[in-house]
Amino acid sequence: MGTTTLTELLVGVLGVVVLLALATVGFLVWHRQRSATREHQLHQDLHEQRQDLERREQRLAEREQRLDGEWRRLEEREAELLDVEAERRRVLEDVACLTTEDARAELMSGVEAEARRSAAILARDIEKAATTEAEMKARKVLATTIQRLASEQTTESVVAAVHLPSDDMKGRVIGREGRNIRSFEQVTGVNVVIDDTPETVLLSCFDPVRREVARLTLEELLADGRIHPARIEEVHGRQAEAVEELCVRAGEDAALEVGISDLHPELVATMGRLRYRTSYGQNVLKHLVESGHAAGLLADEIGLDRALCVRGAFLHDIGKALTHESEGSHALVGAELARRYGEPEDVVHAIEAHHNEIEPRTVEAVITQAADAISGARPGARRESLEAYVQRLHNLEEIASSKPGVERVFAMQAGRDVRVMVKPDEVDDIAAQMLARDLAKQFEEELTYPGQIKVTVIRESRATETAR
User: Fold this and answer.
1) Which residue ranges does UniProt annotate as crossing the membrane (predicted)?
2) Number of folded domains in the chain?
3) What average pLDDT score do residues 108-133 get?
4) Residue 282's beta-bridge partner residues?
5) Which pLDDT value is given to residue 345?
6) 20 to 30 A Cα–Cα from 253, which one of 100, 310, 377, 418?
7) 458 alpha-carbon distance from chain centroid
8) Does some domain include residue 355?
9) 176, 398 in Cβ contact below 8 A?
């Protein structure tokens, strides 16, 4: 029983193996036939493509042969045309008795001469018309600007008058043996003039800021009634600070008047100091406001950037507010200050070029010059003699300030009296005497002035202690 089952199992397995072998053989036969069929198809396709390429190549060769023939015929035709052209040129040269080059040169020469003549006549006419039109437009623009620019101008002097409650106050201003008036003049740097004018004291000084501080100081002393050297110094210091604040407000008001609201605070304060300065008798801050308005009107008339033109004209004289220790002209000093505080380069150039120390390169710079001239050239706007006088006093103070050990310098009595305050720890009595002699000699050599100049060197030592 067991043997029969095993035999049947083996027979079944052998049958399965035989079936698998037959299936494998059949698959291999089918696959080989299929591969042979595909290979035959590929060979047939390649044969057809090769035949197609051969036909195309034959057609291209035939076309190339036809093109070669056409090209040879064109070359022959071109050669014939060149021969005909050469023959025609030879016949023309024989008739005209000129070669081709000679004829061309003669023709070009005539055309060039005529063209140059026509161009010269046209350029002359255009230049003449442009000049005439430019002059007419410039006159119209300037006339329109001046008509629209209405401003007042009061000629300023170098004297400030202070009203006294009574003539008795003159004695208190002078003080015992003149100590109050000497202290006042020494602290403020102004000349006090007390004459027969009733209830009036005159303060004379070429520096308007210094004169204004002195005026306010004297008015406060008169109102308070206490007038002595210590009180004079105290009030003077306070009024100097007050004037600085007034300068800032004046600069802000002037900038807003011309429509500028983004000036650097330092530029605003510097502009405000021009409120107390004059140029040829014309108030500089008013002149700058007027120039700004004029530049704006000019810019509107000819279509320029109004804000840029106004800014350049408004700031063009800012250098006049700087101290005399600054080297260079006010135009260059002002331009450097504007550049330092971030003004646009076009504005800086307008400032430095407004007196032609640097050649103007922009239209805005020329507009600044025109606005400056419009403001300054009006009848009554300036007075030459005052400016010369102020410049002479500036020169006196500048020369004295350049000496070592000098602390402060005041030119008084219309420049006839120069008072030099020196530092006592740097200049002794002998050096002070030598300094006075050297300054007097330098004034004689470098300056031209009427009369005489008295040089006074003041060396003052102070000792201060506090009692507790």
Assistant:
1) 6-30
2) 2
3) 77
4) 279
5) 95
6) 377
7) 45
8) yes
9) no
* 326, 320 Cβ separation under 8 angstroms: no
Q: Is residue 172 part of a domain?
A: no
Both tokens assigned to 298: 């000019």
Query: pLDDT by residue (tens digit) across 24-61?
Result: 888 888 888 888 888 888 888 888 888 888 888 899 98
pLDDT attached to residue 314: 94
What amino acid occupies position 188? T
CA dist 276 and 317 (Å) reads 14
**Last-in-domain residue among 326, 347, 382:** 382
Q: Which of 79-111 are b and which e, b meaning 16 or more Cβ less than 10 Å from the residue's Cβ? A: eeeeeeeeeeeeeeeeeeeeeeeeeeeeeeeee
Q: Is residue 463 helix, strand or coil?
A: coil
Q: How many CB atoms lie within 10 A of CB 138?
A: 13
**Angle between helix 265-273 and helix 284-302 axes, rounded to 10 deg:** 120
Amino acid found at 126: I
Q: What's the pLDDT score for residue 98?
A: 62
- Tokens 């600054």 correspond to 326
Structural domain boundaries enclosing 310: 258-382
Structural domain contains residue 362: yes
DSSP string, 371-433: HHHHHHSSTTS--HHHHHHHHHHHHHHHHHHTSTTEEEEEEEGGGTEEEEEE-TTT--HHHHH
Sign of CA dihedral 302, 307, 312, 318: positive
Does some domain include residue 341? yes
Q: What is the chain's Cα-based Rg? A: 51
- Which CATH number fits the domain that encloses residue 432? 3.30.300.20
* Co-location of 292 and 346 in the same domain: yes
In CATH, what number is assigned to the domain containing residue 284? 1.10.3210.10
Whether 358 and 437 map to the same domain: the answer is no
For 286-322, the pLDDT digits (tens) are: 889 999 998 998 888 888 899 999 999 999 999 888 7
The model carries a pTM of 0.51
152 has a pLDDT exceeding 50: no
Structure-block tokens of residue 83: 């021969």
Cα–Cα distance list, 102 to 88, 94, 115, 327, 423 (Å):
17, 13, 20, 69, 93
Measure the CA–CA gap between 174 and 109, rounded to whole angstroms: 95
Instruction: Give 3-state DSSP helix, strand, coil % of the chain, rounded to 5.
Output: 70, 10, 20
Q: What is the rounded end-to-end Cα distance, in angstroms, of the chain? A: 144
Q: Which residue has the higher pLDDT, 286 or 146?
A: 286
pLDDT tens per residue, range 92-114:
777 766 666 766 776 677 777 77
